[in-house]
Design goal:
The chain is of the alpha+beta class. The protein has helices at 68-84, 106-123, 128-133, 138-146, 201-207, 214-234, 237-256, 267-283, 310-313; strands at 5-16, 21-23, 28-29, 33-48, 55-58, 61-62, 90-96, 160-164, 173-178, 185-190, 287-291, 297-302, 318-321, 328-331. It has 9 helices and 14 strands. The structure holds (3R)-3-hydroxy-3-methyl-5-(phosphonooxy)pentanoic acid. (3R)-3-hydroxy-3-methyl-5-(phosphonooxy)pentanoic acid is lined by residues 14, 17-19, 33, 105, 107-108, 149-151, 201-202, 205, 292-293.
């Protein structure tokens, strides 16, 4: 029996969003992005399998190779095996600790975990140390995960992570800018819909350039990014919060004006954001929203206020998570 390699990779929520690529093939983003790693994981195991193709199980069920859900991870496995020269076919079992494709960046943890588990299996490495000895450093793994899903590269570190595009594809880099203990923020994800997105983020990225607002967005992002980093450094939520909201709405404006438009926000989301504004004023509470490519709302707040937020989200489906520590790898 071949050994089983188990990767647990967290998802992340972007404070400065990656939206739009300068080059799709190499997944070179049009701008820098910055995220908080969440304590919310995809667990994926990999082992060798007989036969001529990879096999993929999600939540215990085998996925048909042509199904929508299997196409992206299978394509990524082919990219990895072809570019790295690994011939063995893999049996992959994956499960999320959260509903997939609902605006929680499940592609970040999903493609991150498949990258880590498959390379661990192909190189027979049960730890990050052992992977690094075979030239698969964390940076290299993040780079490979990025080819499957851009945001996955940020999930290879815990705490607050920055992905810098650099001046060329080769010069881009990902690094932790603050450890999670620097500032124990939390994310209460309000799940207003757990249906699959109508436009995938892959398609959405390529539409960014069709939006007349995109060029304008790229011009302001550097300044916005610096301000976000400064607010993080000072642990200043009253400065950080409005920047998060401005950034999330700006990304959705670009999406809305792309041709064809990507409309991820419905009435339910906008109504909830109104409620949040009134609640915040009434309760004098520092709690701010950000959004992903989906209708769900991420409420960013300080750990000390965890109970104070309850009246706002009472009766709603929520996932409340702290900062994640980064990926894990084991084998059995
Ligand atoms: O990694 P992708 O291709 O799923 O793109 C992620 C895009 C956003 O989640 C909307 C923003 C981000 O930076 O995570």
């Amino acid at each position: 029996m071949s050994r089983v390699y188990i990767a647990r990779v967290p998802t992340n929520i972007a404070f400065l969003k990656y939206w739009g690529k300068s080059d799709a093939k190499t997944q070179w983003p049009s701008n820098n992005s910055l995220s908080m790693t969440l304590d919310l994981y995809t667990e994926t195991s990999a082992q060798y399998v007989e036969g001529s193709r990879h096999r993929l199980f999600f939540d215990g069920k085998e996925l048909a190779p042509q199904s929508d859900f299997a196409r992206k991870p299978l394509r990524h496995l082919d990219v990895l095996s072809e570019s790295l020269g690994f011939k063995e076919k893999l049996l992959i079992r994956s499960r999320n600790e959260f509903p997939e494709s609902c605006g929680i960046a499940s592609s970040a943890s999903g493609l991150g975990a498949i990258t880590l588990a498959s390379i661990a299996c192909w190189t027979e490495s049960g730890s990050f140390e052992s992977l690094a000895k075979k030239a698969y450093t964390r940076e290299r793994l993040a780079e490979l995960a990025r080819l499957g899903s851009g945001s996955a590269c940020r999930s290879f570190w815990g705490g607050f992570v920055c992905w810098e595009r650099g001046l060329s594809v080769q010069q881009q880099s990902v690094r932790q800018i603050f450890h999670g203990s620097h500032w124990p923020l939390r994310d209460r994800i309000v799940i207003l819909s757990s249906e699959r997105k109508t436009v995938s983020s892959t398609d959405g990225h390529s539409l960014a350039w069709t939006s007349p607002l995109f060029a304008q967005r790229l011009e302001v992002l550097e300044t916005r990014g610096s301000k976000i980093q400064e607010a993080l450094e000072r642990r200043d939520l009253s400065s950080l919060g409005p920047l998060l909201e401005e950034e999330a709405l700006n990304m959705h404006e670009v999406m809305k004006h792309s041709r064809p438009p990507c409309l991820y926000l419905g009435g339910e989301t906008l109504n909830f954001l109104d409620e949040l504004r009134s609640f915040r004023q009434r309760e004098h509470l520092d709690c701010f929203f950000t959004l992903d490519a989906g209708p769900n709302v991420h409420l960013i707040y300080e750990e000390k206020d965890i109970k104070k937020l309850d009246p706002l989200t009472m009766g709603l489906k929520v996932l409340d998570v702290g900062i994640g520590a980064g990926p894990h790898l084991s084998r059995k």
